[in-house]
Design goal:
It contains 20 helices and ten strands. It is an alpha/beta fold. It has two domains: about 325 residues, ABC transporter type 1, transmembrane domain (ABC transporter transmembrane region fold, Up-down Bundle), CATH 1.20.1560.10; about 170 residues, P-loop containing nucleotide triphosphate hydrolases (Rossmann fold), CATH 3.40.50. The strands form two sheets. The chain has a six-stranded mixed beta sheet, sandwiched between helices. It has a four-stranded antiparallel beta sheet with strand order 2-1-4-5, with helices on one face.
């Protein structure tokens, strides 16, 4: 049942399309005067389109029988003038419409991207990146097409049908009624095909998003794929997923071609009815030969938009589906609760406190990440969080960065609840060094200045000195202009980590978070980084998630977490003496270090 609901999530009826028009208009209203101007072009162009057949009819019935060459030349000169005028209007229309479409596309993409930037990690944890990329690319393109090209295509179609139909009734209401009966039959066939098209269009869109997500996931983890020799396995998975996508794409293509088949059949049927019925009416004296010729010329102006309307509506339906997909992200609520009048702190201290905090990542679930956690951090002090994996350490960091809000209890900065403080203002005073140094594929300088975009070169130099990375950077041939590669892969782990520390320091934060900053590097790099950390911790509130306990023996306070609770707290010496969980963790690590030392010295632990 759930799968069926998901399958029908983006089904759109004609009535539902009308209810989505205000959302579409939000992207168009900025350009309403341009749109009105282009609409005026269309009205003039369509009026000029129906005049030549009437002139031809007049020539055949009133001019040619009298062999009035002068009048023929004048009338054909008028037709040539109308043709040139319509061509000029068409070229101007195309030029302006092209700019309109890409400006609307830019606006939609910016609005969607800006809405993604303010989402919390909860939002991204429920979605694959390929699906988001698909909406940023395919759906944005579809909606921009709808707001520009499709809008004017539909307007042109409606005007062309209205003008042509009015003139056809004027020339011969009998033939016009006959072809309208055929149009009714055509509509029935088109509606049947369209239902299938909508179904396959939705399937293709969904499977393309999943395929993109799969490709991005595999390529971002290519080292794991290669390390375990699973290249053939992933190639097989890709083939299977591609086959599913191609299968529905083929059905979509066949369904689309069916419109052309139906159009061709009815096209010939229309002309057959017009010619046979028209000749009969000429024989009875109800119409003239000129009227029949004009009718045949004008009916083309009716057939083409009707046939084209089918294809346009197909794309319009798909684009209205894309409106829902885009607005699903744009209107997705930010799960952080913020005060209506948030406080902006000026020159705050680095004082933090947790008061009876309870938190779970999924509301309504039994698994609780933090259970009634309370502690204080004074300004300029250092605190370390230790415990087994899953004990709650990283959750503390996520809450400190305000990626999430606690389910109950409060987190305070300088005595104010984080919910009452302006989020940007709060994050200006906090910085973090992640365990995995996250860098952009850009220059070293731009990566460093990411934490403070207006930083001076003197400030950058100081941060690099403090992070023990200055000499390394200036030994590089291009110095600060060296491009680090995707995720910084042109640098070693230790170099990336020191750059990450320098970037965090450049912000000069009141609170610095070190998320296992030395956990995944070698001992030599650890010593260099630890020396930098010891230097930067002075007179700054520091929160450390510690994997290697040797790095936190000098911190002011250690909090030991187990199953989401603080089970011990104190300094290193006191906690070792207590013989509790911290003592167990410390003893285990020391034994591991001893065993490592023995093997490195060429012994196996025996005398």
């Amino acid at each position: 049942m759930k799968k069926q609901k998901e399958h029908n999530k983006y089904d759109i009826s004609y009535r539902q399309m009308l209810t989505r028009m205000p959302k579409l208009y939000m992207f168009m209203k900025k350009y309403k005067w341009i749109i009105l101007g282009l609409g005026s072009f269309d009205v003039i162009s369509q009026f000029l389109e129906i005049l030549p057949p009437l002139i031809i009819q007049y020539c055949i019935d009133e001019v040619i029988p009298f062999k009035d060459i002068y009048s023929i030349n004048v009338l054909f000169g008028m037709i040539a003038f109308m043709f040139l005028t319509r061509s000029g209007l068409f070229l101007g229309h195309i030029y302006i419409r092209w700019h309109l479409q890409y400006n609307i596309r830019k606006d939609i993409r910016e609005k969607l991207f800006n809405s993604l930037l303010i989402q919390t990690p909860v939002f991204y944890s429920k979605r694959v990146s390929g699906e988001i990329t698909s909406r940023m690319n395919n759906d944005v393109g579809s909606v921009s097409y709808l707001a520009s090209d499709a809008f004017f295509d539909l307007l042109n179609t409606v005007l062309q049908i209205a003008f042509s139909l009015g003139m056809l009734f004027y020339l011969s209401w009998k033939i016009t009624l006959a072809i309208l009966i055929l149009v009714g039959f055509q509509y029935i066939f088109v509606s049947i095909i369209m239902n299938y098209f909508k179904k396959y269009r939705k399937r293709v869109s969904e499977k393309w998003g999943r395929l993109l997500g799969y490709l991005q996931e595999v390529l971002s983890n290519i080292k794991i794929v290669m390390a375990f020799g699973n290249e053939n396995y992933e190639a097989s998975r890709h083939t299977s997923k591609s086959r599913e996508y191609i299968k529905d794409n083929i059905k979509l293509g066949i369904t689309n071609r069916m419109f052309e088949v139906v159009a061709t059949i009815f096209w010939h049927a229309f002309y057959l009815v017009i010619i046979l019925y028209g000749l009969r009416l000429i024989s009875s004296g109800e119409i003239t030969l000129g009227i029949l010729v004009a009718f045949i010329m004008l009916v083309k102006n009716l057939f083409e938009p009707i046939f084209g309307l089918s294809g346009t509506i197909i794309y319009v339906i798909g684009a209205f589906v894309s409106i829902d997909r885009i607005y699903e992200y744009i209107e997705s609520p930010n799960e952080l609760t913020t005060s209506k009048n948030p406080i902006k702190l000026e020159n705050p201290k680095g004082r933090l406190s947790f008061e009876k905090v309870i938190f779970r990542y999924e509301k309504g679930k039994d698994q609780i990440a933090l259970k009634d956690v309370s502690f204080d951090i004074d300004d300029g002090k250092s605190i370390a969080l230790v415990g087994h994996s899953g004990a709650g350490k990283s959750t503390i960091v996520n809450l400190l960065l305000r990626f999430y809000d606690p389910e109950s209890g409060s987190i305070k900065f300088n005595g104010h609840d984080l919910k009452d403080i302006d989020l940007d203002n709060y994050r200006e005073n906090i910085s973090i060094v992640f365990q995995d140094a996250l860098l952009f594929n850009d220059t070293i300088l731009n990566n460093l200045k990411y934490s403070k975009l207006d930083a001076t070169i003197e400030e950058v130099d100081k941060a690099c000195h403090d992070a023990n990375i200055y000499d390394f950077i200036h030994d590089l041939p291009e110095g600060y202009e060296t491009v680090v590669g995707e995720r910084g892969l042109k640098l070693s782990g230790g170099q990336r980590q020191r750059l990450s520390i320098a970037r965090a320091l450049l912000k000069n934060p009141k609170v610095l978070i070190l998320d296992e900053a030395t956990a995944s590097i070698d001992s030599i790099s650890e010593n260099i980084i630890q020396a930098a950390i010891d230097k930067i911790m002075k007179d700054r509130t520091t929160v450390i998630i510690a994997h290697r306990l040797t790095t936190i023996v000098n911190v002011d306070k250690i909090l030991v977490f187990d199953d989401g609770k603080i089970v011990e707290s104190g300094n290193h010496h006191d906690l070792v003496e207590k013989k509790g969980l911290y003592h167990e963790l410390w003893t285990t690590q020391m034994k591991d270090r001893e065993m490592t030392g023995m093997y490195m010295n060429g012994t196996n632990g025996k005398n």
